[in-house]
Design brief:
CATH class of chain B: Mainly Alpha
Number of domains of chain B: 1
Structural class of chain A: alpha/beta
CATH topology of the largest domain in chain A: Rossmann fold
CATH architecture of the largest domain in chain A: 3-Layer(aba) Sandwich
Helix content of chain A: 25-40%
Number of strands of chain A: 20
Strand order of the largest sheet of chain B: 1-2
Shape of chain B: globular
CATH topology of chain B: ABC transporter involved in vitamin B12 uptake, BtuC
Distance between the termini of chain B: 39 Å
CATH class of the largest domain in chain A: Alpha Beta
Number of domains of chain A: 3
Distance between the termini of chain A: 42 Å
Largest interface: A-B, 38 and 37 residues
Radius of gyration of chain B: 22 Å
Strand content of chain B: under 5%
Largest sheet of chain B: 2 strands, antiparallel
Oligomer: heterodimer
Structural class of chain B: mainly alpha
Shape of chain A: globular
Radius of gyration of chain A: 25 Å
Largest sheet of chain A: 6 strands, mixed
CATH architecture of chain B: Orthogonal Bundle
Strand content of chain A: 15-25%
Chain lengths: 504, 351
């Protein structure tokens, strides 16, 4: 199998020629062409809304292009349909994996190909060896009899990969495959990817994480506003160049912090905060106008500390002072009362009402801040707040009535931010504020945080993205095994130092 | 994978069954033992046969409901379909249509049931409407249409071909406490159960029902013809409801549009107790059968214990909530456990 990939100039397993796709007057894809060689990883990069997902849908047959053609193994199609795509060996692994949570791993692996073959009968006993064969071939350890809903995210992904391969995938498209994985899991995935390459499978990766992309892919294709702006060997690109092609502008990822007045008051002070089994003896201060980074591994206790400050999982020892007075934080209401806001990690499930409008979402958390003296809603103040934040955070949407579901990740994140800013908290904590957000939006969100801090808010950013912490934080706390082991300041706030302290 | 090589926890898991069928069997057994000790009249063949006899119709309804629940829906219109199909058939046979014979009568009833099922399935699959609301609506429509267009009269004499079956027994056993009869119509109920079990386990149609109940969107992406499958599910459920209605009418030797009112609760309770998940994707014929028998045993026990019949419905209501409650608590506990697992796994070094 490996030998074919090495002999001569291989012919592409998939070619996309001059694809045009418009949605009601808006051009999503404008004359895009791509090719994919067997045994190659091609990274498809671009900002949210650049047309990546549309292109994938066209390749997998979920959408039909206006013009252009798709060539698989020399067969030309003017458009795909899902069955044809699967038959010609094109498989897509969506971000949510599209697995059946109630069925076993074995059945998940074989069911799709059985459907594609239009089979009538199903035999669980015959399914198992087929699934086992593919699992063994990839050298995986998966419990074939476990229900998929009991698996970790990484194992779900591996199940999805097995499912794709069992029907002889020649082209495997993975949408944001690394977003939900830890670093070790990503490394493990990349080992599997190498095995797939040696089998001659062509892979298309869609990803925001540029350093990972450069590590695994041979070529990078970058889309911007529906156009393929560049396709180039990965070795000739660096994250900076990719960012430039994606956004069309130079991005500032350098450190950019305001001078903090030494006399500015302390808004938040923790003294020996602890929760049995999660963290202990956590002490630090946050000053007005300061952006404080909190980092550490997943499971180190960093999220638990933030949740304690927001009253989600209350601490059981120690004292929290806000503006010098001790406060009780036993519930979320206590925290809100104390002027503390929290933007959670999983904004889609915890921070937003997806089907409601931007306006409703912005105002959802702060009806009490917008009342007339009779206790009714002050509609004028509400409108002003909504319009003000909509403009200030530069949410990209036709108007404030658009449902949040229609927004891209970066814009949705701005709406979550707006919701909290509408409450005017004194202290705002953000957990992974730019996870799943493209780099253009990321820079703007960091800019918004800087501006809010400069206006007097105390901000805590919880993140494992070292460059992001360096770019905006005055100080960075490193949490390890539930303890604050390091407080980096000044020149110590550097990417390498942070990574080293976190891993130590 | 021989039984001997399994570790003890694995074996326990196997005994417990995928949908807690094992637990249910133990509860059922315990109840029977307790009742037999409390009242020796309970542990007799006549009682056993009478419980089986009273389980026939609920089991057939429950099998239809089971299929709908696995597909992620709920059907509260089956009783209305059953009455509609059975009463209309009896009326048709009475009003001069030549006697079609037993098979002809059933064929007519099943055809009516299937057609009403098509209406449910079409509304649900085509317009993606909530199944509870659709079947609540069609339930009212079917009942209203029956009373308006077919009739509201109580019919005391069934056509000869049907009446004959009502007194036929599969076999008869003489016991010291009297003769015990096992009704012939146990046979179609058992056949239906075995048939549905096979369909659910060993056909792509059956597995598609589970897949759709697990995740509709994933099913669509996998190329499963969701709409077709859903319509088929409601058509089969309607057909089974009609069969249940016919058997109910035959066994009761009379037909009236007012029968079976309120039996929805018993049936859905039995299916949920039998381990089918109200969120879809889980359930088995074995569990449902055990659930149906459990409900019947409880009814029977309450009668023997002298509990007023008004309390029987209360008991089933309590059972339904207990059944759903156990599911909800168990799923919450397992999801919490998996979160802890994941945090544990994630204690690792970044690249």
């Amino acid at each position: 199998m490996t030998s074919t990939a090495l002999k001569g100039p291989p012919s592409p397993v998939l070619e996309v020629r001059n694809i045009v796709k418009t949605f009601g007057g808006v051009t999503a894809l404008n004359d895009v062409s791509l090719d994919l060689l067997p045994g190659e990883v091609l990274c498809l990069a671009g900002e949210n809304g650049c047309g990546k997902s549309t292109l994938i849908k066209i390749i997998s047959g979920a959408e039909k292009p206006d013009s252009g053609e798709i060539i698989v193994d020399g067969n030309t199609y003017s458009s795909m349909d899902p069955t044809n795509a699967i038959k010609s060996g094109i498989q897509v692994i969506y971000q949510d994996f599209s697995l059946f949570p109630n069925l076993t791993v074995a059945e998940n692996i074989v069911l799709t190909s059985a459907v594609a073959d239009r089979r009538r009968l199903y035999s669980g006993r015959a399914a198992r060896p087929a699934a086992q064969a593919i699992v063994d071939e990839l050298g995986l350890h998966l419990d074939l009899d476990a229900d998929v809903e009991r698996l970790s995210v990484a194992d779900k992904q591996l199940t999805a990969i097995c499912r794709a391969l069992v029907s002889d995938a020649r082209v495997l498209i993975m949408d944001e495959p690394t977003t939900a994985l830890t670093h070790t899991e990503v490394d493990r995935l990349f080992v599997i990817v190498e095995r797939l390459r040696s089998r001659g499978v062509g892979l298309i990766f869609v990803s925001h994480k540029l350093d990972e992309v450069l590590k695994i892919s041979q070529r990078v294709a970058i889309l911007r506003s529906g156009k393929n702006v560049v396709t180039s060997p990965a070795a000739m690109l660096d994250p900076r160049a990719i960012a430039l092609h994606m956004t069309g502008q130079e991005l500032d990822e350098t450190r950019h912090v305001s001078d903090l007045d030494a006399r500015s008051e302390v808004v938040l002070e923790l003294e020996g905060l602890g929760l049995r089994g999660a963290y202990e003896d956590v002490s630090f201060t946050l000053r007005r106008g300061e952006i404080l980074g909190v980092t550490g591994l997943l499971g180190s206790g960093r999220t638990e500390i933030a949740e304690a400050l927001f009253g989600v999982v209350p601490h059981d020892s120690g004292v929290v002072k806000v503006n010098g007075t001790p406060v009780r934080l036993h519930s979320i209401n206590d925290a809100i009362e104390a002027g503390i806001g929290y933007v959670p990690e999983d904004r889609l499930t915890q921070g937003l009402f997806m089907d409601k409008s931007i306006a409703d979402n912005i105002i959802a958390g702060s009806p009490n801040e917008h009342t007339t003296r009779f206790g009714t809603l002050d509609l004028r103040a509400v409108r002003e707040t909504i319009q003000g934040l909509f403009a200030r955070l530069r949410v990209k949407a036709p108007n404030v009535q658009a449902p949040v579901r229609s927004l891209s990740g970066g814009n949705a994140q701005r709406v979550v931010l707006a919701k909290w800013l509408a409450r005017r908290p004194r202290i705002l904590m953000l957990n992974g504020p730019t996870v799943g957000v493209d780099i253009g939006s990321k820079a703007e969100i960091l800019g918004i945080l800087r501006a809010e801090a400069a206006a007097g808010m105390g901000i805590i950013v919880i993140s494992d993205d070292a460059p992001e912490l360096v770019a905006c934080c005055h100080r960075v706390l490193v949490v390890r095994h539930g303890r604050v082991v390091e407080i980096l300041e000044g020149d110590d706030v550097a990417v390498d130092t942070i990574r080293e302290k976190v891993a130590a | 994978m021989s039984g001997a090589s399994l570790a003890i926890p694995d074996r326990l898991r196997l005994l417990r069954g995928a949908n807690n069928e094992g637990v249910l069997a133990v509860v059922l057994l315990a109840l029977i033992v307790a009742m037999s000790i409390a009242n020796p009249a309970f542990f007799t063949l006549p009682t056993a046969f009478s419980i089986l006899r009273s389980s026939i119709v609920p089991l057939i309804f429950a099998l239809g409901v089971l299929m709908v629940i696995i597909s992620g829906g709920i059907d509260v219109s089956f009783a209305a379909i059953a009455v509609f199909a059975a009463y209309t058939t009896v009326r048709a046979l009475q009003s001069g249509t030549p006697d079609l014979g037993l098979i002809g009568a059933f064929a007519l009833a099943l055809l009516i049931g299937a057609s009403l099922g098509v209406i449910n399935g079409f509304l649900i699959a085509k317009f993606r409407l909530p199944t509870l609301i659709v079947t609540l609506g069609t339930q009212g429509i079917f009942k209203g249409a029956l009373l308006t267009y077919v009739g509201s009269r109580y019919i005391a004499d069934l056509p000869a071909s049907m009446a004959q079956v009502s007194t036929t027994n599969l076999f008869e056993v003489s016991t010291p406490t009297g003769s015990a009869y096992l009704h012939i119509l146990v046979v179609p109920a058992v056949l239906l159960a075995i048939g549905l079990a096979w369909v659910l386990r060993s056909t792509m149609f059956g597995r598609s029902i589970y897949a759709i109940g697990g995740d509709v969107e994933a099913a669509r992406r996998a190329g499963i013809r969701v709409m077709r499958t859903q319509v088929a599910v409601y058509v089969i459920a309607g057909t089974m409801a009609a069969a249940g209605g016919m058997i109910y009418v035959i066994m009761g030797r009379s037909a009236s549009p007012q029968i079976l009112v309120g039996s929805e609760l018993d049936i859905i309770a039995a299916v949920v107790l039998g381990g089918a998940s109200i969120f879809g994707g889980r359930g088995s014929v074995l569990g449902t059968t055990l659930g149906v028998i459990l409900v019947q045993v409880i009814y029977n026990s309450l009668i023997l214990a002298g509990v007023p019949s008004a309390w029987q419905r209360t008991a089933v209501g309590v059972l339904l909530i207990i059944g759903v409650g156990i599911q909800a608590v168990a799923s919450r506990r397992s999801s919490r456990a998996s979160v802890i697992d994941e945090t544990y796994q994630k204690q690792e070094v970044p690249a």
